Amino acid sequence: MEKFGKVYMVATPIGNLKDITLRALDTLNEVDLILAESISYSKRLLNHYGIRKPLLRFNQHNEKKRVSKVMKLLNEGKSVAYISNAGSPGISDPGAYLVSKAYENGIQVVPIPGPSAITAALSVCGIPSNSFIFLGFLPRRKGKRKRLLESIRGEDRPVVLFESPNRILGLLPEIREILGKETQLVILREMTKAFEEIRRGDVDRILEYLSKRDIRGEITIVLRAEKFKALIKKL
Question: What is the pTM of this model?
Answer without folding.
Answer: 0.89
